[in-house]
Amino acid sequence: MITAAREREHAPPGDGARGQRILENLRHDVPASLVVFLVAVPLSLGIALASGAPIVAGLIAAIVGGVVAGALGGSVLQVSGPAAGLTVIMAETIAEFGWATTCAITVLAGALQVLLGLSRIARAALAISPAVVHGMLAGIGVTIVLAQLHVVLGGSAQSSPVQNLLQLPRQLLDAHGAATLVGVLTIAILLGWGRLPAAVRKVPGPLAAIVAVTVLSVVTGMTVPRVDVPANVLDIRFVPLFPDGGWFDFGLAVVTIALVASVESLLSAVAVDKMHSGPRADLNRELIGQGAANMASGAIGGLPVTGVIVRSSTNVQSGARTRASAILHGLWILLFVAVLAGLLRNIPLAALAGLLVHVGARLVNFAHIKDVLRHGDLPVYLVTVLGVVTIDLLTGVLIGIGVAALLMLRRLLWSGIHAERDEDGWHVVVEGALSALSIPRLSAVLNGIPRGSRVTLELVVDYLDHAAFDLLSAWQQSHEKAGGTVVVDEVGHPWFERGKAGEPTVHKRRARQVAPRWFAPWSEWQRAQGTALPAVPAQRTRESSMRRGVAEFERRTADLVRPYLDADRHEPQTLFITCGDARIVPNVLTSSGPGDLFTMRNIGNLVPAHATCAEGAESSLGASLEFAVDVLKVREVVVCGHSSCGAMKALLSGTPDDAPALRSWLRHAEPGLERYRTRPPLQVEGETPAGADQLALHNVLAQLARLREYPSIARAEARGDIELLGMYFDLGSARVHLYDPETGVFRSAGSRITGRRLTSGDGGRSTEAPVPVEPVVPPGG
């Protein structure tokens, strides 16, 4: 892996730093380029053989891919050259048009790639389903294996994969000894190479296999077909030839090669990005670089060029830092061809075929099969493989894309519909997207419900179209006219409710936000259900709403919460003291769940003096404090006040004469009232609240001081085992503020308190200051 700090391709000029950086990068790029060169040579020869092209065409494509695509492409560490993914297409194209015309097709395909890159639509290729891409590669792999097994066995490949499969049994019975030995030995070396010691594996497996079997065949004098290389490889006298007719098929071949080469290069570039942490690929520039390379390769008699994942991954793993590695690998191949081309004539064709069998088999990646199976795309994968193998690559890919589109449409329009009896009647659940395509199933379910029964229609739908709304509305009216009851319970967006109100049942640019039921008041979601009770005594309404809320919990939430309810562990981190106001929901304010908060609530979030908590009515609160601190070992104690607090208003305006218990309880707020009258006003984010809200701020600090009178809290704080925090919740803005003892201001919770240090999060700038250990509020103050 390389780091972003290592990639310094565009270093600023000046004082020799750039030259030093280039030399440092070359120290890594040169060795990496040599490793990639050793991998590329045998693969290029094998791909040319499998494509039915002149052997030298593979080397030309490797040279041009390394130099041109490496210099102009948008992926810094991708290595390009002839690819196994195009062998099937190239074999068919060469058979139909001949080699010279195929080179003209390659030139025009490159020009089309350049135009696609300039139009900046390269990322559109990423919209193709991964199942189609993996299926295409697997189909190519199966096709290569079926063809090259015949060569390994000393025979010749047939005209199609199906024919290769049908003729394979006969070929197995009529194997040629020497060629078969060479091919099988090549495959065996490649399969076993990964199990050898790391020091041995520094030599690329393909190079080791080809060299070993070539030396063996020469030393033992085997008579086997070998690579045919021109006497002077560099004597290129070649001009691509355009056909005399058949322009539609010619154009289709251009588009096919351009699209397949583009998709393979772009997907390879994306895969290479995942292997390193350097600069990300510019996919449009990569497409332009690949197009330029194909124009150059086709013009001088080379195969089409694509980004190749095998060479690219080798490049990254070998420590390459810049695009110089890919360019150098192309130059090493050129040097090899110029100086040592004669050695290529010793390589047995069966050895290259064995290499291709191994490469093709690896294209059928079982990890990819598991992945598409997990995502439900196995039909797309299998159809694509079958199409590529039995028809041709382009048709197979198009069939795969079509099946993927149908599956996507089905998932978008799918709706799960089922009905069951419950205590109150019938319960019908509809999930997914409810469209006209779901009407037959929906109609059958609804018509099967007895007339006159009570029905709860639960809609958990992402979309409701006009036709489905009409059916639901008409059925509801018909059922209710027959004496039945229909309660429509919409979970999520209220599509049906909007339709009943005469609004469109389609998406708008900004859909209305709907509060989740775990936070929305009972009245909100029960009104949407149509189950809110009419005006009746308050007690009955509350009980009925509560019972419905419990039923909702049982139906929707219990199974989700159960894994977080550990019956044997109770280890809350925070003691949370707050007001009994029904608008304060501690777990929502703190984004916490079961087991996080030990909560104490009372009128005014008050803490009685320690002397009064030993016995009497306040002993329960004192016991809760001691249990939280001494037994549960909480790490922090929070006192949370809030705006518009009724207790604070009662302190300022006086308690009612007929509420003696309330008057007695509010005496515990007298320290806060004293602070309010004698201390300067407190601020909340630069603003100074007045009246009862100002008193609520002083009350929070007074209660923190009261807490320190408790011996258990004083001991824990002295040991550094506990922290006391003041909190204020502004109901109007729904904002939480924490008290900062350094500034004496209640600051937004965007400023986070960690341990004994307060950190400001303003604008990404961080300032830290130690929080004093002495009490936030002096005792008695």
TrEMBL record:
Signal peptide: none annotated. Residues 756-781 are annotated as: Disordered. It is a multi-pass membrane protein. SUPFAM superfamilies: beta-carbonic anhydrase, cab. The chain crosses the membrane at residues 30-49, 56-77, 97-119, 131-153, 173-193, 205-227, 247-272, 324-344, 349-369, 381-409. Residues 26-375 form the SLC26A/SulP transporter domain. Its EC number is 4.2.1.1. GO terms for cellular component: membrane. Keywords: Lyase, Membrane, Metal-binding, Transmembrane, Transmembrane helix, Zinc. It is an enzyme of class 4 (lyase). It comes from the Bacteria. Belongs to the beta-class carbonic anhydrase family. Catalyzes the reversible hydration of carbon dioxide to form bicarbonate. This is carbonic anhydrase.
